[in-house]
Design brief:
The complex is a heterodimer.
Chain A lengths: L1 E11 L7 E11 L3 E5 L6 H8 L7 E6 L2 E2 L4 H7 E4 L11 H11 L4 H14 L15 H13 L5 E5 L7 H16 L3 E6 L2 H7 L2 E6 L2 E6 L1 H7 L4 E7 L3 H9 L4 E7 L2 E6 L2 H14 L4 E7 L3 H9 L6
Parallel strand pairs in A: 3-8, 3-9, 6-7, 7-8
Antiparallel strand pairs in A: 1-2, 1-4, 4-5, 9-10, 11-13, 11-14, 12-13
Helix pairs in contact in A: 3-4, 3-5, 5-6, 8-11
Chain B lengths: L1 H16 L1 H21 L7 E7 L4 H11 L4 E5 L2 H9 L5 E5 L3 H7 L3 E7 L4 H35 L3 H5 L1 H14 L3 E7 L10 H16 L1 H14 L1 H5 L6 H29 L9 H25 L3 H19 L10 H7 L3 H14 L4 H25 L4
Parallel strand pairs in B: 1-2, 1-3, 4-5
Antiparallel strand pairs in B: 3-4
Helix pairs in contact in B: 1-12, 2-9, 2-12, 3-6, 6-8, 9-12, 9-14, 9-16, 10-12, 10-13, 10-14, 12-13, 13-16, 13-17, 14-15, 14-16, 16-17
The chains are: A alpha/beta, B alpha/beta.
């Protein structure tokens, strides 16, 4: 059963000639699943999440969240969503507890309910011991936890996380990803945006790949990978000019695509084990020597490359 | 509504934690009030009375000496031409002309005449009339009583027995009859409407610095909004159930509370440390405080809405507070400026508020007297707030 239903959502800034940031996007999010919007910077992920948060009014289309229209019933939508922005949007000169109390009141909590919920969230984000310290005294990871904790106060039915791991250390990133998996175990629905393929792959039940404002692919990880079939990507570097080599390799059996990417060649192959020896032979025949080989099994990066002709840079 | 107060309370908490704010909100205004107060001369809150003694005789000089002793007026001796100029440009609340023959009239027991020149509608001039009437009345009455006593004593010298014993009663009866007649006639002559008291000392500096630094506190209040916009909390607030109007009103309420609290502090120090009598009319004072906080908070909100960077806000607040303070008469009384400057100054609500505050302190203004200032402030606040609402944006 869908908790979010997006139908033909569009957003053009400064119409009629401004940027079309989101272009006729449609998707659904099922209750209890983690749904990721994956795409490079500027793809339209944050604009989509802003519209679903009722911060931006769509230029076209509509979406419902828990049955409430984002266009017609923003207040009802806001009561069921929790939004974790990309930047740490809490008050640095207030303590974690003061922040949670303040935001709890903004979500409409009061009295005993507010106090007990603040205690629970402090426990959840592991900041009970540091709750009376000002946030500007915290590490980056602790600030991120407060940032997430704020969005959990009112027990939202769906949690939006907009690139929550940008610019943080690996340990904090791990902690956040584990936390999100825990939310799913507790039955919460999560909408997650990222440009990190590995995160989308690890977390998501389903993934929507978005580029230039359009949803270019949608499905489970397995379904998306099938788009590129069983192809693997092989990155090869040689000690001579690449152009001639790429031409030779592209004619080999089992190589579906070969291109020059900066200092190496990028090949899509049916079966890496079968093709690799021939690559070495062709290189030797052309008077070149292969200096490095990297084989990537089918993944979302390949899907994006396949669909857009560009790499999804992390 | 609860969210609105929570927002305002949060802003106040953040301001309280910002040590730099205390310098602008409390320390600098007190220091500047003391500095300007001493510079413009403390202890000179008495009403300025320009005085020309054309009589220059015993009784006129006694009257001048008695007025110089007065707690209510400050005598500024002037010749006839200067007197006129002083009253015309408002440097004296009123002018007193002691005509030739004043002493002779007093000595002859005839009604003595004084001429008071001033704006009869001005509370300052009215206070001076009362003071001059009382002082001159005492002087002339004493002189007349002494004459009666002398005459009675002279008459008694030629009498003996029971008749001589009646002399004190006779003298008393004559003196009483004399006192029932007008002892001094005070003719008031209308002068320019600008006539009034020019504030000096702490009466000048305390309300002036109050307005000046309330304007400066826009920096603290506006910065809170700019920082919220910058760190994304303003945007995040709109993902909660806070309505747009609650957010804007909450921000303004925070600014209002901050400036109102600042006023309580500075007015308290003015009253109890610098001896400026703000509590002459508490209700009128409260109206002026509300007016000033409304103007300041709506202006602060508009600046914070229009400007996007801290640097731009600092520049705007410095320029705004300096120019508004100067034009409104916060640094020097508008009465000493020309009509053009006064007109421009009174296009601003702060000039009206300063008139109101100084009127309460020095001219006995009540609620009715400050209503025009309140009206001007309300109109300005509504306009500034409306503009801020229209231009309000989250990012």
């Amino acid at each position: 059963m869908s908790i979010v239903e997006v139908q033909g959502l569009s957003k053009r800034y400064d119409p009629p000639k401004g940027v079309l940031a989101v272009d006729d996007v449609s998707f659904t999010i099922e209750r209890g699943e983690i749904f990721s919007l994956l795409g490079p910077n500027g793809a339209g992920k944050s604009t989509t999440i802003s519209m679903l948060s009722c911060l931006l009014r769509p230029s076209g289309g509509d979406a419902t969240v828990d049955g409430h229209s984002i266009v017609g019933d923003a207040q009802a939508v806001k009561s069921v969503i929790g939004v974790v922005p990309q930047d740490i949007a809490v008050y640095p000169d207030m303590t974690a507890r003061e922040n949670l109390v303040f935001w709890g009141k903004m979500y409409g909590l009061a009295g005993v309910e507010l106090t007990s919920r603040v205690d629970e969230v402090l426990e959840l984000i592991s900041l009970v011991d540091r709750q009376k310290d000002r946030v500007d005294k915290y590490s980056g990871g602790m600030k991120r936890r407060v940032n997430i904790g704020v969005a959990l106060l009112h027990r939202p039915k769906i949690l939006y996380l907009d690139e929550p791991t940008v610019g943080i250390d690996p340990q904090s990133r791990r902690s956040i990803l584990d936390g999100i998996l825990t939310f799913r175990e507790q039955g919460m629905t999560v909408l997650y945006t990222t440009h990190y393929m590995a995160e989308a792959q690890e977390l998501s039940d389903r993934i929507g790949i978005i580029d230039h404002g359009k949803m270019i692919a949608l499905g489970t990880h397995g379904e998306l990978v099938k788009i590129v079939g069983e192809e693997a990507r092989v990155d090869v570097a040689v000690d001579r000019q690449l152009d001639g080599m790429v031409e030779r390799w592209s004619g080999l059996r089992g190589v579906s695509k070969a291109s020059v990417e900066e200092d190496h060649a990028e090949l899509l192959v049916d079966d890496a084990n079968e093709v690799l020896p021939h690559l070495f032979e062709e290189a030797a025949g052309g008077g070149s020597r292969i200096t490095s080989v990297n084989v990537s099994e089918p993944n979302l990066e390949l899907v994006f490359l396949h669909l857009t002709g560009r790499a999804l840079r992390e | 509504m609860r969210r609105l107060w929570t927002l305002a309370g949060k802003d106040l908490l953040e301001t309280r934690r910002d040590r730099l704010s205390a310098i602008f909100i409390v320390i600098m205004p007190i220091a500047f009030t003391a500095f300007f107060g001493l510079m413009f001369g403390s202890g000179s809150d008495r009403l300025a009375l320009g005085l020309h003694d054309a009589d220059h005789d015993a009784q006129s000089q006694q009257l001048v000496a008695a007025l110089e002793e007065s707690d209510a007026v400050r005598v500024v001796p002037k010749n006839a031409a200067e007197l006129e100029a002083w009253i015309a440009d408002g440097r004296a609340a009123a002018g007193l002309l002691i005509p030739e023959g004043f002493s002779a009239a007093v000595q002859a027991g005839a009604p003595a005449e004084l001429v008071l020149v001033g704006d009869q509608a001005s509370s300052g001039a009215q206070a001076i009339v009362a003071e001059v009437r009382a002082t001159a009345g005492d002087l002339v009455a004493a002189s007349r009583a002494a004459q009666v006593g002398v005459e009675a004593a002279a008459e008694a010298q030629g009498q003996t027995g029971a008749a001589a014993a009646d002399v004190p009663a006779f003298a008393q009866a004559v003196a009483t009859q004399a006192m029932e007649e007008p002892v001094v006639s005070l003719t008031t002559v209308a002068a320019g409407a600008a006539a009034g008291q020019i504030p000096t000392g702490f009466t000048l500096s305390s309300p002036g610095m109050l307005v000046n630094f309330i304007m400066f506190s826009l920096l603290t209040a506006g910065m809170a909004v700019i920082m919220e916009r910058k760190n994304g909390t303003l945007r995040r607030l709109m993902t909660t159930r806070v309505r747009r109007w609650e957010l804007i009103a909450g921000k303004m309420a925070g600014m209002f509370a901050l400036t109102f609290f600042q006023q309580i502090l500075l007015l308290g120090i003015g009253q109890f440390v610098f001896g400026v009598d703000y509590l002459n009319d508490p209700a009128a004072l409260l109206l002026m405080m509300v007016a000033l906080s409304l103007v300041a908070s709506s202006l602060g909100l508009l600046l914070a809405v229009l400007l996007t960077s801290e640097q731009a806000l600092v520049a705007a607040v410095v320029i705004t507070s300096m120019s508004v303070s100067a034009l409104s008469g916060a640094w020097f009384p508008l009465e000493i400026t020309g009509p053009g400057f006064q007109f421009v100054g009174h296009l601003l609500p702060t000039a009206w508020i300063l008139d109101g505050l100084r009127g309460i302190v020095a001219r006995g203004f009540g609620v009715g007297d400050v209503l025009p200032a309140l009206g001007v402030a309300l109109a300005w606040s509504a306009g500034l707030f409306g503009l801020a609402v229209i231009r309000f944006r989250l990012t």
